[in-house]
Amino acid sequence: MKASAKAHTNIALIKYWGKRDESLILPMNNSLSLTLDGFYTTTTVDFRESLTEDSFYLNDQLVSGVEYERVTSFLDLIRKYAGKPNLFAEVHSTNYVPTAAGFASSASGFAALATAAAKSLGLKISDEELSILTRQGSGSACRSIYGGFVEWEKGDRSDGSDSYAIQVAPANHWDIRVAAVVLSSSAKKVLSREGMKRTVDTSAYYSSWVESIPDDLSNIKEGIKNRDFAKVGEIAEANCLRMHATTLAANPPFTYWRDTTLAVMQTVQELRENGVSAYFTIDAGPNVKVLYLPENEETIQSTLREIPGVDDVIASRAGQGVSYI
Ligand code: PMV
């Protein structure tokens, strides 16, 4: 049966940084994100008896190599789960995530793939099970199953059966906006997988990072519940800075920041000094995401666009969870 699904990417306000199990993708810490409606992936999966291997098309191009391997290993997992280990699929994906925006398309990509694949195999699974499956394709993707504010519970079990995402508040709870600030040169040097491993293994600050999470989480959830923008923004910004501090204390040390990354961070702090409420967060790359409220949309957009080295500013609202199309 052929099935199509759509999934949005998400931005972490409390970061997932570090795995306790590399192959099952089990995190060291809980994380919390906002699903974004501006950036998404649509995927069609067709499992057919007549196929002898999987094929994967991304934006109409046949994909091979590492990207193809990641998709087939994920399909292996889902085939096994469905008890149909010898059934292969044709997969067509379209990414509506501008690569330059610095959002990993893997979050929306694996959430859409898991949802369409499960449906194509006729699996009747709960969102919780879908999140568990998706997690094994890409960690942060397990949060994209849900819309709005989403927490990924790290879980305690070694088989990962309690490591999945849950919704904290739906997208319509609060109209909070995120601007993706695209820098002119933004090639990522240390992949998130590698960066996490190096920090867990060597960073002198890693244990402090893990210890700081429970307070951040309970405070940000209270802030979200009360729609307290300053509280949510302050916690998200500080959490991001702490995550990036772990990379500086790694061996060998590294950072995802460039000069323009710092320029954007400083501009956001200046905006606040001038009474415009805005906060930044940064993932495993040089681009910056800025959180703001709708009434400041124009000021935020025009101020960020003026920074030398900034190519584009792409705004997004809170988005919905996965859906069938
Ligand atoms: O799931 P991955 O491997 O793309 O890692 C995501 C890591 C961060 O983006 C830095 C943080 C997060 O929670 O999304």
TrEMBL record:
Its EC number(s): 4.1.1.33
Enzyme class, UniProt record, top EC level: lyase
Keyword ATP-binding: yes
Organism: Virgibacillus subterraneus
Span of domain Mvd1 C-terminal: 181-306
Name the UniProt record assigns to this protein: diphosphomevalonate decarboxylase
Lineage, opening ranks: Bacteria, Bacillati, Bacillota, Bacilli, Bacillales
Keyword entries, A-Z: ATP-binding, Lipid biosynthesis, Lipid metabolism, Lyase, Nucleotide-binding
Family the entry assigns: Belongs to the diphosphomevalonate decarboxylase family.
Location of the Diphosphomevalonate decarboxylase-like N-terminal domain: 7-165
InterPro entries per UniProt: GHMP_kinase_C_sf (IPR036554), Mev_decarb (IPR005935), Mev_diP_decarb (IPR029765), MVD-like_N (IPR053859), Mvd1_C (IPR041431), Ribosomal_Su5_D2-typ_SF (IPR020568), Ribsml_uS5_D2-typ_fold_subgr (IPR014721)
